[in-house]
Amino acid sequence: MTDAPAYPGQPLSEVLTPALIVDLDALDHNLARMARLAKEAGVRLRPHGKMHKSADLARLQMAHGAVGLCCQKVSEAEAFARAGVTDLLVTNEVRGAARIARLTALAATGAHVGVCVDDPANVPELSSAITAAGATLDVYVERDIGQGRCGVTSTADVVTLARAIDAAPGLSFAGLQAYHGNAQHLPTHAERSAAIDAALPLVAEAVSALRDICLPPPQVTGAGSGTFPAEAASGLYTELQCGSYAVLDVDYARLLDANDSRYDATWRHAVFVLTEVMSVTRPGLAVLDAGHKAHAIDSGLPVIADRPDLRVTGASDEHTTVDDPASTLAVGDRLRLIPGHCDPTFNLHDWIVACRGDTVAELWPVTARGCQW
Ligand code: PLP
Ligand code: MN
């Protein structure tokens, strides 16, 4: 007996629900498309692994030419490395001796590890730990370009940090991270491009100041699925960190839908939560067996794929309610939910059921599920 919810060759109709389904044809399409767009723009692609947390999916992205993977947490990086994905950029600051010790120990295993800094005090902490571990770390200066989260807020601070990194034993100055999280979910393509256009002078100023001190940034990394066309075309960024493009979700489908015919029109939904109708006690209401422990609702409720006439009206822990005015649904009917937000949805599941058409092709563990630190 195994805890896996399905087996290769099994018809999808027999998979126990709720289950996290990835449509491999749609996934391949999205991975190939982003790989082609990055190549055409002359930039590298380092997709964000925090989205899917799956080493199997990461390997597919690398097969499509990704240079490595982004993670947000040290424990995520450890999980990916254990599963054989070993070129990892932690797109985040790592603070505290215990976390830094784990990061440097990971680099000492031979993994290629990068990390961001936004505080000069972090530089000697990383340097002494990585020296003691007998390894090297790639270190990026994080520049805040409008998100108001991590990252230094002036060119002078970028220069100070780059100098400190360059002078610190065991640390290699790897460049700049400039990620504009707030811009990703602005409603129109024009607003998203404008937000990046407003931020680009900050990146340009940092790059030019670094050139002036003979520390040109080897990489300028950032961008998400909502804005990457702007960063890719900027002539400044060398690497894209997009995550959600691989599978989409309700929010990203709405954002990317036909706003920009070159970049947006043909992404495909690749992730679904397969669910079953479990109760129809009154006319016009159907209750599904997947609640928000199976699909994340922080960005809004899911949409029902293939039945746009039906509307999800609410979700509790283990149930989702559907408005079905003509009472078309019966107990046992199966529906695929498009999650409101893909990243936290993957983190809710132990397994990804990877399908070709209506048949289970592979079972993938959610390798870095629950990795919090
Ligand atoms: N880079 C960083 C630093 C992020 O925090 C994220 C997501 O929040 C991404 C890239 C990927 O963004 P998206 O899933 O919107 O493509
Ligand atoms: Mn997200």
Automatic annotation (TrEMBL):
Record-linked CDD domains: PLPDE_III_LS_D-TA
Domain of life the protein comes from: Bacteria
InterPro entries linked: Ala_racemase_N, D-amino_acid_metab_enzyme, D-ser_dehydrat-like_dom, D-ser_dehydrat-like_sf, PLP-binding_barrel
Keyword field contains Acyltransferase: no
Keywords: Lyase
GO BP, one annotated term: D-serine catabolic process
GO molecular function, one term: D-serine ammonia-lyase activity
Domain D-serine dehydratase-like residue range list: 270-356
KW 4Fe-4S (keyword) present: no
One Pfam family recorded for the sequence: Ala_racemase_N
Family to which this protein belongs: Belongs to the DSD1 family.
Name the record gives this protein: Alanine racemase
Native source species: Pseudaestuariivita atlantica
